[in-house]
Write a structure and sequence with these properties.
The chain is an alpha+beta fold. It is built from 8 helices and 23 strands. The structure holds adenosine-5'-diphosphate (ADP).
Amino acid sequence: AGSASTSSVRQVKLDRESELRIEVGNDSPLRLRLLSGNAEIFGTELPPEIWLTLPPRLKIAVFTWYGATLEMDGATETDYTADETPMIGYVNVHAILEARRSRARASSADDSGSTQGPRVIVVGPTDSGKSTLSRMLLSWAAKQGWKPTFVDLDIGQGSITIPGCIAATPIELPIDPVEGIPLEMPLVYFYGHTTPSNNVDLYKVLVKELAQVLERQFTGNAESRAAGMVINTMGWIEGVGYELLLHAIDTLNANVVLVLGQEKLWSMLKDVLKNKPYVDVVKLQKSGGVVSRNAKYRQKARSYRIREYFYGPANDLSPHSNIANFSDLFIYRIGGGPQAPRSALPIGAEPAADPTRLVPVNINRDLLHLVLAVSFAKEPDEIISSNVAGFVYITDIDIQRKKITYLAPSAGDLPGKYLIVGTLTWIET
Ligand code: ADP
């Protein structure tokens, strides 16, 4: 007995400074454990001998600095070892950031410039390994006792909360390779779309709001100020995307720009930032292990993120289906619609759509399958500048009875009465 269940177990021996790259299959999880030596997944050390269960579709690398033996149980889509990695370059960056954090902590409070630790922004095209590098830098810092702030500006594939949002959260422990970032009250702003071109101005406004709140938090917290931030960005680096990167660097006062896998972007940024000598623009090699994800995969990944929000990473949460009267909820859309009637404009002027105008939304079946954010705003005019408490998913609209059915993380009253709707949809499967 037992031979059937152990027949797929195999050992992999890793030489120093090499990694095992794994793409878990689509249908079944993979079990993995460290038998001897030391190894880490994206900056987080593996505990010795304990089996980890990697969920379907996960793509990771198990890297070792000094050599390790691993054991795998189950089928994979692919797995291979690689001894060419950019890890030395990455850990050198970490060492420089560590030195700056220590210097910031040692500086006296009246010398305010130098009490600020590194503010690192990671930029590059899609699938250059930005999220992965952000994760490593955060986990390595957390391992050494810092609590750096993670800022995720990627509205397509962010790792703090659901898509369509920008968010920030302190990282207190190395990030769990399976569970990801714990959802403990992150600071979240709802943009409502998965591409910034829907409303570029709104995106900028939200980045600014987030930056202001973080700035205030840093003022009162020398420790997190010294730990600094790691900012992950979108893969959109051309045209408006490039403009948004510059806006983020500026607004969040980044002082280290890490450019992954694109010479041209590095040289453009270096050139445009040369009037800010305190900003270091550093070019880093992209890992050969980064997996390209097509549009369909991305769409699926977004859908899983939303599912995870309601049901938990291991189906361990029980969301609640609630019913409200149309009159109980106040739903707003941000942007769109003419700013002023044509009659109020100078002759010849075209009414422009105000990108940050608040537009009340009538409840009808168009809201079906949309994911809405619950704002912390107390008044409608606070909605744009307020962060959000969480999300609801509209599952039914009964026009006759004027009832709306929605899924929420829990039963009971929503944490606010103002809801924001964008174009973020989800089909529960
Ligand atoms: P970006 O943020 O630039 O779009 P990611 O960091 O999300 O790119 O990487 C894309 C995918 O590749 C992710 O699924 C990530 O887990 C995977 N990945 C990154 N580095 C490696 C590696 N060295 N080996 C295997 N998979 C990797």
